[in-house]
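Entry:
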Amino acid sequence: MSGEERRHPAAFPLDDRAIYDAYVAGRQSAALTVGVRVGLFDKLDQTPLDVQSIATEFDFSLRGARSLLVALEAMGVVNCKEDLYALSPETAAYAVHGQPGSLVSLIELEMDHFLSPAALLDALKKDDSTAYGDADPWEEHERDPEAAARFTAAMHSVSERPAAGFAEVAPLGDVERLLDVGGGSGALCLASARAHPDLTCTVWDLQVVCDLAKKYADEAGLSKQVQALAGDMWNEAFPTGYDAVLLSQIMHDWSHEQGSVLLDKAFACLPSGGRVLIHEKLVDEEGGPLANALVNLDMLVWTKGQQYTAGELEALLIAAGFADVQCEPSAGYWSVVSARKP
């Protein structure tokens, strides 16, 4: 019997599946995160296995292995043929360690910072970041280099594929020097440098993050094009000498008022004709897509910000003095909003 043929009791004529599906959706994140953390997907990327072999390999109970695999198969994460479980093409591309664009570092962040209903309720009442308790996340990263490395790896993970899209569609053809404010690992700088061999990029971030960015550039063989410069975007003026400023996943960390301050600083540091580039997961005027709307809840727990619409960013850019505002999709849920200083 198909889903469309399912009957509804006379006393309950409305279908309950939309609400139930929303309730149970969190189990998908849990199952995916466990698969990444224990190395299940890494193992299945090497060879398909049956349920008993998986239970033995990962010290699962047989019932536990079956339950996890049934869920993962229904999710489309794995498939089963002749009792052997293998990865879907998407899982092999994005849930296996070491693959370019892999999301594993982002997914693994769920183990320590899962957005439980209790955590969400706490954040809703506090109206402040709660990811590290009462500590400011950025100050915590300065105090704890390991936490900074985990977070930076997660952001690199979620940025690597959209960074390639950004490098293809962003108006970088006439840009010679790019300043990546709060650039983290430098994922967007690395992609942009690959696409534009004459471009030089600078990741401007906290010292603890700059140390990490230099390693990413060295590993990519792009240290001549991508450098890192320590600084504080709130307590310092933006460095000058650049003809484009990039704010990738920065605006959504802060309130509209704080975002205006950052755009004012970008305007001040740029020469006439210079560009500001904003890379974000935008929500549309109707509040979708769902994946981007849900990031608002992550922002509530991690930051002081929210996801923007293209119109909201355009208004802030114009208020800061920028002109010729353009918005282009880059990859997946991401978009580039660009503007020029007259």
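The chain has two domains: 3-94, 115-340.
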